[in-house]
Specification:
The complex is a heterodimer of chains A (340) and B (290). Chain A is mainly α. Chain A has a domain of 232 residues. Helices cover 75% and strands 2% of the residues of chain A. Chain A has 15 helices and 4 strands. In chain A, the strands form 2 sheets. Chain A has a two-stranded antiparallel sheet with strand order 1-4. In chain A, strands 2-3 form a two-stranded antiparallel ribbon. The longest helix of chain A is centred in the C-terminal third of the chain and has 28 residues. Chain A is globular. Chain B has 290 residues and is mainly α. Chain B has a domain of 194 residues. Chain B contains 11 helices and 2 strands; from the N terminus they run H-H-H-H-E-E-H-H-H-H-H-H-H. Chain B has a two-stranded antiparallel ribbon with strand order 1-2. The N and C termini of chain B lie far apart (45 Å). Classes of the chains: A mainly alpha (340), B mainly alpha (290). At the A-B interface, helix 5, helix 11 and helix 14 of A face helix 4, helix 9 and helix 11 of B.
């Protein structure tokens, strides 16, 4: 089965790819920076979606897993001098291992209880990072050596863009294909009804751990990329707030959809940036209003989550489908029913 | 020995504030099965509301506490009406995320109104230090213990003796049976949120007395989870005992071992409890095992 079913989808995908190729030559550094952040966020959101959206295991430990990825890759390059490609791969594997470890409670717990145990995982990893000073430098920031490819530095906005979109595209492709396979289907079966899944021969325990491993692998990739893009990492980038941010992305984008991960990552990355831009405009005319900026960003973030949950629980990917369905039969009012 | 007494009083004092926060959480969970990640922000609101009524309006402290509780209860009801009501019956992840969104909004509102700088209000708990045996302990923490216990006792009486308290327990026990007895579920949910917000506000007031009025107050919201898991998610008694144990452990770990261990001891306890006895000390053993 092809990746895209109908010609229109292939055309859209082609247009999107073309836009991605042209974009860095036209965009300002500001937009390139945002695009890079979205690429990293997309990888992280896809990873989290594999676990939460597709397998139904709620995780509040995203920040911790990203920290493992970021610190592993940074320290391998810094202390052992490994090339960046190798240390990123090692970081992904290390994060997968840590993910499996903190996924172990899922063998006994589910739903709310699992969510709370991943909250504990988040706090414990954060504590280890800030207190194991000999290894991580504690609360001090770690400076990461710049990655190079063909003599070019890769952590410029322009250079990193290519790395970012290739890896994000690869992750999306992998995820899409994963859920066409037996393993991916068993993830979904565990989410929908674990007892039924075990009756039809799915090894529920193994599947959950595999989901934790796969998810953490990509989350670790997102963490490692953050380290190389930012050049500097500190524990403050990987707190519970990060976990919440990524959960918001997949909720707003749409649980268990690939498109939704991208949409959500883009929206949650762009929202504060747009508000900040609007704030700078206001700086001249109304300085008092500009001072409220952080509150406005925080309130907007919360409101977006609440409004989506109340009015469109299936997120942006459902809105996108609605728009598509509208034009599919335009100008007639008939809509295709659910079930696509 | 002195250090032990000091740590015990400080731990119990902090533990009782945890208990006040946790009781609100338990009330909401019992009545409506909602996991409230915004509990810390309800505390935060309490702290700033008491600052507002004592310093900015200049009320005497009795009136200030009353006003704070009323406004907090109002916020609780408003939240239940606008945000939680439409989500009844949605999956757990939606409930968790909506209260996280709520926490973000509440924090932003506090930040927008009162700004980030720490404030103080004239303390109405006794200040200074008291000798207990041979140990010196701060008076406000010492007073916080009986005060919180009295409040929690009052709450227990409410659940046993009053009509709405009994209605709440009935709904927690069996929603359909309660409905058929003519109990209004929406009204009980609203009462639960009002009660939870009001008790959290009292916790916030005490916390404001002890540590001052700062945005950091909200961080206590996360400490609620070890407390309620240890005590049992649906047990008020558990919230009190769990709060005391977690508070004591934190201070003993910080005092005797150090290394910032007090920060994660509650979470280590949390994981152990989840693995060994997920329903906690006093919770009902209805948890679904995998």
């Amino acid at each position: 089965m092809g990746l895209r079913r109908v010609p229109a989808e292939r055309v859209r995908l082609g247009l999107f790819a073309a836009a991605l190729l042209v974009f860095p030559f036209l965009a300002s550094p500001y937009w390139l920076n945002l695009a890079n952040q979205i690429a990293i966020a997309t990888i992280g959101a896809l990873g989290l979606n594999i676990l939460v959206g597709y397998t139904g295991q709620i995780s509040l430990g995203q920040g911790a897993f990203m920290a493992v990825g970021a610190y592993t890759s940074a320290l391998l390059t810094l202390r052992l001098g490994l090339p960046w490609g190798v240390s990123i791969a090692a970081a992904c594997l290390a994060t997968a291992a840590v993910g499996v470890f903190f996924g172990l409670p899922s063998l006994r717990l589910k739903g709310l209880y699992l969510a709370i145990s991943t909250l504990a995982a988040q706090e414990i990893v954060e504590w280890v990072v800030t207190h194991w000073t000999a290894l991580t430098g504690g609360v001090e920031a770690v400076v990461v050596p710049a990655p190079q490819l063909f003599g070019q530095r890769l952590n410029t906005d322009f250079g990193f863009y290519w790395l970012g979109i290739i890896l994000a595209g690869g992750t999306a492709l992998f995820t899409a294909n994963l859920f066409r396979s037996r393993i991916g289907r068993s993830f979904v079966a565990v989410r929908d009804q674990d007892i039924a899944a075990s009756v039809i021969g799915v090894n529920v325990f193994g599947t959950k751990l595999l989901a934790f491993a796969t998810s953490s692998f990509f989350v670790g990739l997102a963490g490692a990329l953050t380290a190389y893009y930012r050049n500097i990492i500190s524990w403050e980038r990987f707190t519970l707030e990060t976990s919440v941010l990524y959960l918001a992305m997949i909720i707003v984008g749409g649980l268990g959809t690939i498109r939704g991960s991208l949409f959500g990552a883009a929206l949650i990355t762009l929202l504060p940036a747009m508000i900040a831009t609007a704030g700078r405009e206001l700086q001249q005319s109304a300085p008092a209003a500009a001072a409220l900026l952080p509150s406005v960003q925080q309130a907007a973030f919360g409101l977006v989550i609440i409004l989506f949950l109340v009015f469109e629980p299936e997120g942006l990917s459902k809105l996108w489908r609605n728009v598509k369905d509208y034009f599919y039969v335009w100008p007639f009012a008939y809509r295709r029913g659910e079930g696509r | 020995m002195d250090q032990f007494l000091q740590l015990t009083v400080a731990g119990l004092g902090t533990g009782m504030i945890y208990a006040l926060a946790a009781v609100g959480f338990v009330i909401i969970y019992k009545a409506s099965d909602v996991i409230n990640f915004a509990q810390g922000d309800l505390l935060l609101f309490g702290t700033y509301l008491i600052f507002f009524s004592l310093v900015q309006i200049g009320l005497p402290w009795t009136a200030g506490v009353l006003l704070t509780m009323l406004v907090a209860a109002g916020i609780g009801v408003a939240v239940e009406r606008t945000v939680l009501r439409p989500l009844i019956g949605e999956p757990i992840i939606s409930m968790i995320m909506v209260t996280i969104g709520l926490s973000s909004v509440l924090r932003a509102v506090v930040h927008a109104i009162w700004g980030p700088q720490p404030r103080t209000f004239p303390s109405f708990l006794p200040e200074g230090e008291v000798m207990v045996g041979s140990a010196v302990v701060s008076a406000d923490r010492l007073v916080a213990i009986p005060l919180a216990l009295a409040l929690l006792g009052g709450l227990a009486l409410f659940f046993r003796r009053t009509r709405s308290g009994i209605a709440m327990r009935a709904i927690a026990d069996d929603q359909q049976a309660a409905l058929s007895m003519g109990i209004s579920i929406p009204r009980v949910f609203a009462t639960a949120w009002a009660l939870a917000a009001a008790t959290a506000a009292i916790g916030g007031i005490m916390l404001g007395n002890i540590v001052g009025v700062t945005p950091n107050v909200a961080q206590i919201g996360l400490r609620v989870f070890p407390v309620v898991i240890l005590g049992g998610l649906d047990s008020i008694r558990g919230a009190v005992v769990g709060g005391a144990i977690i508070g004591l452990l934190e201070f003993y770990a910080g005092g005797y071992i150090g290394h910032g261990l007090n920060l994660i001891v509650p979470y280590i306890v949390l994981i152990i409890v989840l693995m060994v006895r997920p329903y906690g000390l006093f919770g009902r053993e209805i948890i679904e095992r995998v």
